[in-house]
Amino acid sequence: MLAKFAECIKCGEEYNYRRKELGYSTCLTCGDHSARRLAATRTRENLRDMAPNSFTGSIDELFDKRGG
Question: Are the CB atoms for 26 and 9 separated by under 8 Å?
């Protein structure tokens, strides 16, 4: 039986067509990269929601506003 391949929409690499049938349009490498980026974004958003009054800018900018 010949394996069918699909093409990743991000890098053009071929990956197993069964992954495509599951609804994924990227290879494992690109999919992993996207998932990690999404998880990091969600973590930052959750931490921002838990500490709404925290400073999110540069430390140098913070000290410049205080006046040296």
Answer: yes
The per-residue b/e assignment along 33-52, b for 16 or more CB within 10 angstroms, e otherwise, is eeeeeeeeeeeeeeeeeeee
User: How much is the pTM?
Assistant: 0.62
d(CA 3, CA 65): 62
pLDDT at 47: 82
The string of pLDDT tens digits covering residues 44-57 is 888 878 776 766 66
CA distance 7 to 45: 33
Cα–Cα distance for residue pair 55/67, rounded to 1 Å: 17
